[in-house]
Write a structure and sequence with these properties.
Number of strands: 40
Strand order of the largest sheet: 1-3-7-6
Strand content: over 45%
Largest sheet: 4 strands, antiparallel
Helix content: under 10%
Radius of gyration: 52 Å
């Protein structure tokens, strides 16, 4: 009789192992996204104990079994580091599960984990100011950089304007950054920088230029007046003016300015000119006050910086307004013992007195005869003498004093009298 001793039970298994769950995740901040250098992990839970997993792939790329981690006989994982040669898009993965008897099953999976290796770009970038001239800015003006990205970027991008952080608003692909300019900012072209990441974390190349050639110049310096002069079109002297004379103020600014405003003699003046050279003009009227003609000039540069009001000339030029004709007094006497009588060869003298200097000696005619007037210069007192002739008309002597005007050109009607 032969006996058989047992070595234990033997279980026959010809069924491929079952996988309860298989999942893939990234170590990216957003676990459903991955970029170059990110590590993706495939986690596997089996329904029975496994001997091993093999045939590992991620994104159609073979994965070394050295990347496998066995947590327990039913819990396994493997990792893969994304590279620049990997194909973008949703990641597929696969593996072969091997149970203890040696049954195997090869499995492949799709996933919603997206690989993105493309850096975002900005397709439209512009810069503008809320200044009346949107290419200029002064202290207190707000400058806005608007930009559009090629894909959704992380919120918010970081933006500097003039070297200082700006306030960013927007979402998705449309953004704007705004900053108010301050006195400490540097004058000139306003620089900016935009730094941005897509949702996967791919960094776009820093952008420092617009795509539409827009630009802003920052100006914090008030303009000044380098030349101011006042003059009249008076026929006698440009330093004097009478009614109906035009008084002009010419001035030059340190930079191009907006159309300024001006008063002459307290009344609004007409402005002409451009850029840095300007003229203010006013026709003087009887309503204007006599004396030195005052002026004001108010102005601002193109950015809106106000210049200090100018109220005086540079160099001391001045115009005096005179609307009053001189007051005249005329006397006639003879050198006859009886000064109110004259005979042939007696001297009859006209004396003319003015309340102010006359522009030139007046003309004098005695008994219809033009006589020399002395002095021949500007003065307030003149004389003219005639030696009476036998041919002169007997009776009262007539005289006419004409051509009377003051320095400004105010005239007096001819003075004519019958006397002696």
């Amino acid at each position: 009789m032969t006996s058989v001793s047992s070595g234990g039970n033997v279980t026959f298994d010809n069924t491929a192992p079952t996988i309860n769950t298989a999942a893939i995740a990234s170590n990216n901040t957003v676990t459903t996204l991955a970029k170059v250098g990110d590590v993706v992990t495939v986690s596997i839970v089996s329904a029975e104990n496994l001997h091993s997993i093999s045939g590992l792939t991620v994104n159609s790329q073979s994965v070394d079994v050295a990347q496998v981690t066995k947590t327990s006989a039913t819990q396994w994982s493997f990792t893969y580091t994304m590279t620049s040669s990997d194909t973008e898009g949703d990641l597929g993965y696969g593996f072969t599960a091997n149970d203890l008897p040696g049954n195997s099953i090869a499995l492949t999976y799709s996933s919603s984990l997206t690989f993105d290796r493309t850096a975002p770009t900005l397709s439209a970038v512009s810069i503008s100011s809320n200044n009346a001239v949107n290419t200029l800015a002064k202290v207190g003006d707000a400058i806005t950089v608007a930009f559009t990205s090629s894909e959704t970027v992380q919120d918010p991008p970081t933006v500097t304007i003039g070297g200082t952080g700006a306030t960013v608003s927007g979402s998705g692909t449309s953004w704007s950054a705004t900053r108010t300019m301050a006195s400490g900012d540097s004058e000139g072209g306003v620089v900016f920088a935009i730094n941005f990441l897509d949702l996967t974390g791919n960094a776009g190349t820093q952008v420092t230029a617009t795509t539409d050639a827009s630009g802003i110049t920052f100006d914090k310096t008030a303009p000044t007046m380098s030349a101011i002069a006042i003059a009249s079109n008076n026929a006698n002297y440009t330093t004097l003016a009478k009614v109906d004379d035009s008084v002009k103020v010419t001035f030059t600014s340190s930079e191009t300015i907006q159309t300024p405003t001006s008063t002459i003699g307290g009344f609004n003046a007409d402005i002409s000119g451009a850029t840095t050279s300007w003229i203010a003009a006013k026709l003087m009227t009887i309503s204007d006050s006599e004396g030195s003609v005052g002026l004001t000039i108010d102005y601002m540069d193109l950015a809106g910086n106000d210049g200090t009001q100018s109220t005086a000339t540079v160099g001391g030029s001045d115009v005096v307004f005179d609307k009053t004709a001189p007051t005249m007094a005329v006397t006639i006497v003879s050198d006859n013992p009886t000064t109110t009588l004259a005979k042939p060869d007696d001297n009859v003298t006209i004396t003319i007195t003015s309340s102010e200097n006359l522009y030139q000696p007046p003309t004098v005619a005695i008994d219809g005869n033009t006589e020399t007037v002395n002095p021949s210069t500007q003065a307030t007192s003149y004389t003219s003498t005639r030696v009476m002739q036998t041919s002169d008309s007997q009776g009262d002597i007539t005289f006419v004093v004409g051509g009377i005007s003051d320095l400004a050109g105010n005239t007096v009607t001819n003075l004519s009298l019958i006397h002696i």
